[in-house]
């Protein structure tokens, strides 16, 4: 199949330069995804130290870990309107500032309550990044590249997770423990949070250097600026592309919540986006990234070994995201989601069986003997593989492209807010579920994975190769 841009007069060299430029622009936007992943995962290595520092019980720990997710839900709701009114790149700059302030405050916290407040602020930034980055990338990417470039968001998220986990491991190892003093006498866990400040500043600087979304510029009546941006993105096809965008936007007013209403309260496509977002979290993936060091310690690993295993899991997540990037525009969105749901149901079911059959020590923690520990570890990493090659990146690709131009940012905000609320539900309840039994927790996540398969088969449309104006 011929490249659509080649059909419109591109030379090979010009097309290649344009593709590289678009990829670089998308990568800057995806820095928001990096911070999203980093900020949500950095707490992994600090959970035990926070519990000891603040003498907190399970419910308080669950609130502290998941407080950022409540902020993320709020940030996702407001980010769409902010991005529509002030632009995608300006919203990225504001998001960068929130990341900086939250990281500084979280590291300086003196109680679980002010710590939670700083994490909520960071959550607002995470929620905004989860909306703006996929919307922006979808709007600057040609249809034949959109799946791969949209996957950059998930790649950035998993790289952020990995860097956070690696940083936690390095800092805790250097200090001897996350609770021990590190540089300048501050506890190691505080430096884990402060390490987010440099990439947050870089994100803000990058947002100053990339162009505004041409679709946003057209919506704001700035067609001349939009044409200039499009010439840098699609070359000779810029004027035709501008006319297409104007045609879809010219008769439309600024989106309102009323535009999302349908017979069932919301438009069917918005409900599908909400369901897609919720299932991405209900399968329990963030339990691995928020609590895995605690989880592996609970089954007998030392703190250092548990953190090392967590880093390995982060590497697995990155590697599998490349699988999705390589296949999403060739195989399609639906097949990857279906395969991922089946794989997650099987691996989570295996973990549920292993943990359910485990004995307990005097403290009530599960004890895996013989090959059981290795089976659980293998199943956990295969589970991450299945998620990383499917639901992780494909959800963000679909959310960025499945909504029509008129409602994209607003609908994506609602869907992303649902994702963060589902994430909060899973993260806040895991400490209590861990007490009830890891087999119970994994069984619930396996059931959600099975339900996600039915959801995809029944409701998810295939968007591979379609222009946004066709949606």
Walk me through the topology.
Layout: H1 4-7, H2 12-41, H3 47-53, H4 58-86, H5 88-107, H6 112-140, H7 143-175, H8 188-194, H9 197-209, H10 214-219, H11 223-234, H12 238-249, H13 268-282, H14 285-298, H15 303-331, H16 333-356, E1 359-360, E2 366-367, H17 372-388, H18 391-401, H19 408-436, H20 438-459
Antiparallel strand pairs: 1-2
The rounded Rg comes to 22 Å
User: What are the secondary-structure elements, in order, as H or E?
Assistant: HHHHHHHHHHHHHHHHEEHHHH
Count of β-strands: 2
Distance between the termini: 22 Å
* Physical arrangement of strands within the biggest beta sheet: 1-2
**Into which percentage range does the β-strand content fall?**
under 5%
**For this structure, what is the CATH homologous superfamily?**
MFS general substrate transporter like domains
Task: Estimate the global geometry from the Cα principal axes.
Answer: globular
How many distinct folded domains?
A: 1
- Helix fraction, binned, reads over 70%
- Low-confidence stretches are 1-17
Q: Give the biggest beta sheet.
A: 2 strands, antiparallel
- Determine and state the CATH class: Mainly Alpha
Q: Determine the number of helices (DSSP H or I, runs of at least 4 residues).
A: 20
- Structural class given helices, strands, pairing? mainly alpha
Kindly state the mean pLDDT as a whole number? 79
């Amino acid at each position: 199949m011929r490249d659509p841009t080649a059909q419109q007069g591109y030379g090979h060299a010009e097309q290649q330069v344009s593709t590289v430029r678009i990829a670089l622009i998308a990568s800057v936007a995806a820095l928001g995804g990096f911070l999203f992943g980093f900020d949500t995962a950095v707490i992994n290595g600090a959970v035990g130290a926070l519990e000891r520092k603040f003498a907190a019980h399970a419910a308080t720990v669950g609130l502290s870990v998941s407080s950022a997710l409540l902020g993320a839900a709020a940030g996702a709701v407001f980010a769409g309107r902010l991005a529509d009114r002030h632009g995608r790149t300006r919203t990225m700059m504001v998001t960068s500032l929130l990341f900086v302030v939250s990281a500084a405050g979280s590291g300086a916290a003196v109680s679980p309550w002010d710590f939670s407040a700083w994490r909520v602020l960071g959550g607002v930034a995470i929620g905004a990044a989860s909306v703006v980055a996929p919307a922006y990338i979808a709007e600057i990417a040609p249809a034949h590249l959109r799946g791969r470039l949209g996957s950059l968001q998930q790649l950035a998220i998993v790289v952020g997770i990995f860097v956070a986990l690696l940083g936690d491991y390095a800092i805790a190892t250097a200090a001897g423990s996350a609770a021990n003093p590190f540089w300048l006498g501050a506890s190691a866990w505080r430096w884990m949070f402060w390490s987010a400040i440099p990439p947050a500043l870089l994100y803000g600087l990058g947002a100053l250097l990339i162009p505004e979304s041409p679709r946003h510029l057209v919506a704001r009546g700035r067609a001349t600026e939009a044409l200039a941006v499009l010439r840098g993105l699609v070359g000779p096809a810029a004027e035709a592309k501008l006319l297409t965008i104007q045609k879809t936007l010219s008769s439309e007013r600024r989106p309102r919540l009323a535009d999302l209403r349908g017979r069932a309260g919301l438009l069917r496509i918005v409900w599908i986006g909400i369901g897609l977002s919720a299932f991405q979290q209900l399968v329990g993936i963030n339990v691995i990234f928020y609590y895995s060091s605690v989880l592996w310690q609970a089954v007998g690993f030392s703190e250092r070994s548990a953190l090392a295993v967590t880093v390995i899991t982060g590497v697995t997540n990155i590697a599998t995201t490349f699988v999705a990037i390589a296949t999403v525009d060739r195989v399609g969105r639906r097949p990857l989601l279906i395969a991922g749901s089946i794989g997650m149901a099987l691996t989570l079911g295996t973990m549920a069986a292993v943990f359910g059959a485990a004995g307990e020590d005097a403290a009530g923690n599960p004890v895996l003997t013989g090959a059981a520990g290795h089976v659980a570890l293998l199943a956990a990493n295969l589970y991450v593989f299945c998620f990383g090659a499917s639901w992780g990146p494909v959800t963000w690709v679909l959310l960025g492209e499945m909504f029509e131009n008129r409602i994209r940012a607003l609908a994506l905000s609602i869907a992303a807010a649902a994702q963060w609320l589902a994430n909060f539900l899973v993260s806040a309840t895991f400490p209590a579920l861990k007490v009830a039994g890891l087999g119970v927790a994994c069984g619930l996540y396996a059931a959600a994975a099975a339900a996600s398969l039915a959801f995809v088969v029944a409701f998810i449309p295939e968007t591979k190769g379609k222009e946004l104006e066709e949606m």
